Each structure stands twice: as structure tokens, then as C-alpha cells.
Amino acid sequence: MSLDPRVNRLKLGDPNAVIKVEEGENWNVYEVFHQEKRGAHHEHVGCVHAPDPQMALIFAKEQFARRKKCVNLWVVKSADILAFDVEDEDMFANNLEKTYRDASGFKVMEKINKFKQSSKGTTDVK
Amino acid sequence: MYGGGYIFEEPNNRQVREEKIHDEPEKLAAFEDRIARGEKIEPGDWMPAEYRRQLIRLIEQHAHSEIIGALPEGTWITRAPGFKRKLALIAKVQDEIGHGQLLYNAAETLGKTREAMINDLLSGKSKYSNVFNYPAKTWADVTVIGFLIDAAAIVNQVANSKGSYGPYCRALERICYEESFHLKQGHDAFIELATGTPAQREMLQDALNRWWKPIMHFFGPPDKTSQHSEKLMQWKVKMASNDDMRNQFLDMYVPKIWELGLTLPDPLLRKNAETGRWEYSDPDWDEFFRVINGGGPCNEERLQVRKWAEEHGRWVRKALMKPTEKHTLPVA
Ligand SMILES: [Fe+2]
Ligand SMILES: [Fe+2]
């Protein structure tokens, strides 16, 4: 007898029975993206197992949106994510001299001040 | 291979690699350097086979514990005292099932399918936390579980969340956030009984007496008897020793029990002011091993209920199954 009346109502099988879940019975994996508020990016928060995208959305709502704020969710099959191989990470290594891509790489005030101090600057500005 | 016969076929062409710890000393050195620097290891990264094996074991058992742990508490949903307690208990039990899902997914990134993990649970090959092999006899047991077992789990989970494996850390971050609610609602229900009628206090004291031994077992055997955890500590798979976690738990929670005028069934339990460490009687490690190997009061029922659920849900899962679809693993 179990302490749980619900368990006692079940017809539990033979304790030595071998129950096996088949490969694929837990369906496939979908990555979940969560949007916290309108206008924000959807952010990756994890994944769910589901038989199709519609069910994945329902499970994602249950799993990732039952407490904190959420206005929208995306799901996408994990297999459809294309990513760089982690071993190629070095391709993102930054060239040390990249100021030409950066606002800080352009110093206009220096040139303006130099111009203003030069004779050309003082004679022109009257 | 660690489980099923699946492979990545589609764009994210990550292979689950077979690594041998001694085969690639250079890769191993680079791997250990990364961990020492505090970097996270991600699913596609090279990792020693032993690291992968130990992580699967750890995360899988953690997942099983969440799922099985929902059973003793779930028992009391229909009989919770009052609507607010019932709502909180439903929410907590749902969270625990959600934790199980998050953790199965994290383990799955390492190459073992969820089906394989469930099969190992049902066959008894894979273990879950020993505390859940004990029954929740009264409502007071539910408050002891919600307060003290969740508190112990938090000590463990907060430590693990600083580990080296990215997907596990991210799952734990979400889990720890929800655990703070579990602990608070458990503490609240515990205090309500502790400050209630003499019958309520008696019921709570009885539950505490029965749960104290399993709680002392929770963090596992003493450090002096557990083997080869050094490498696991270096790899940040194991983040704190069993005795250290137990000590931290006692430090935080024994005073919270004693302040309510309740007692614990161990005459030797005390904090040594000189060492700063807690001292206690030997909590009967033979019983711990006996229960974990199937000899506890509820082992059989827990697994039978899981088997029943798998069997009776099968037709739904199968009806929705797409047998031609290639199975993939989570990306992160
Ligand atoms: Fe949990
Ligand atoms: Fe919990």
C-alpha cells in the first residue's frame, strides 16, 4: 500500500517488468528564444523536446514563460541552427589596430585647434 | 558513444567525439588551462572522455532527482491544508519537473539521449537522490522537504552553478532562481507548524526526527571515504567536498531549527567553536548504501510509478512521433 491514494488507484505493473522508451519517442529538440518586452531582442533561453513547432511553442510557454515577464517566444529546430565550429574561434581574434573602425580613431578637435592657432586660421577668421 | 544511434546530420555539424584522456596531452593541457582561467566549456569543445562521462553521470542523476523528488511532494497536492498552500505546492512541483527537463537537456548536449537516460533510470542503472526513497507521511513531512531538502539542494546547486560546463551552469542559474521560492514557501509552512498548536508542533518534530538521517546523508559519504574527487575538483565538475557542503548546510539551517525550540535527534550535534566545524554522530552510512541500492522504503514504488507513467503515456508520444526524422542534440 502506498501513502498516496492516487498511486493505490493505479494498477501498477510487475516491479521487475522491463519498460523501455524507444529512441525518438521523446521527439526532437527545439531551441527557444524569449522576448521579455516589446522592442527587445528575442534571447536564447534553452530548448524543449517536441514533435512539431506548434507543440514546441506550447511546451516553451510552459517551461520558460510561467513566471517572469514574456511577450513572445520563438522556437526553431536545433538542427536548423547553423553555427561556426568552435574550433574556428580564432577567426574572431581582434586585430590590435582596428581604430579605423571606431569613432575613437578619428580626432577632429586636434586638427581644428591646430588650424585655429595657425596664422592661416587667425587671419581668415575675422 | 554514450547512448543512442543518432548523429548530427544537419547544418550544425558537430560530432560527438570520442576522446581519450591520455591520447592528446596538448589538448588536455589547453582544456585544463581554460578551466583554471574560469572559462566555460561548451558542447562542441574538445573535452576528455572522463570529463564527459562524469558530467553526464552528474547532470543525469540531478535530472532524475528532480523528477522523482516531485513524487513524495505531489502526494500531498490533493490534501494540502488550504488553497494558498495547494497553489504554492502545485507551482513548486511543476518547477521541479521543469528542472528535470532543463537538466535532461543539459546532459543531452553531452551526447546521451533523453530516452537513454530515462531507460537507465527505469532499469535502476542510474541513481537519483537518496532522500526521495523515504515516504512523506504527513503534511509536516512536506514542510520539512520544502524547507530543508530544498535548502540542502540549493547549497549543492549554487556550488555547481560555478562549475565549468556552460549548459549545466545556465540551467542551474534558472533553477536557483526558482529554488529561492521553494525554500521560502517551505520555511513559511514549516514556521506555521512550529508556531502553531501543540499537535502541529508534535507533528513537525516527528517529521524532523524521521528526516534528519536522510538529510545528513544528502551530501554523500564523508570525504575520507570518497575516492578520486581531486581530478573532478580540478575540472570544476565537483565544486565542493561532501563534508564542506554538509558543514555549510548545518551552519545555515541548524540555528533556524533550534530558534523555533525544535530539537534534532543527534545528541552529539554541535558546532565546535575552535574549528568552526560541525560535529555529529555517524549517520549510519550502511543504511545510506543499502537504500541507494534499492533497499529503501519507497525505491520500488518510485520506479513503478515512473514506469506506469512511461507505459501509459506511450501511445500519445508514439502518435506524435516522426520516425523518419533525424534526432539532434540541443545546441547549447
Ligand atoms: Fe529543483
Ligand atoms: Fe526545489
TrEMBL record, chain A:
Among InterPro entries, the record links this protein to:
PaaB (IPR009359), PaaB_sf (IPR038693)
Instruction: Cite a single Pfam family from the UniProt record.
Output: PaaB
Which NCBIfam families does the record match to this protein? PA_CoA_Oxy2
Q: Give the protein's recorded name.
A: Ring-1,2-phenylacetyl-CoA epoxidase subunit PaaB
Automatic annotation (TrEMBL), chain B:
Name the Pfam families on file.
PaaA_PaaC
Q: What Gene3D superfamilies does this protein's entry cite?
A: 1.20.1260.10
User: Could you state one GO biological process linked to this protein?
Assistant: phenylacetate catabolic process
**Which is one Gene Ontology cellular component term of this protein?**
cytosol
Q: Which molecular function terms from Gene Ontology are attached? A: phenylacetyl-CoA 1,2-epoxidase activity
User: Which NCBIfam families is this protein grouped with?
Assistant: PA_CoA_Oxy1 (TIGR02156)
The name this protein goes by in its record: Ring-1,2-phenylacetyl-CoA epoxidase subunit PaaA
Q: Which organism is it from?
A: Chitinophaga jiangningensis
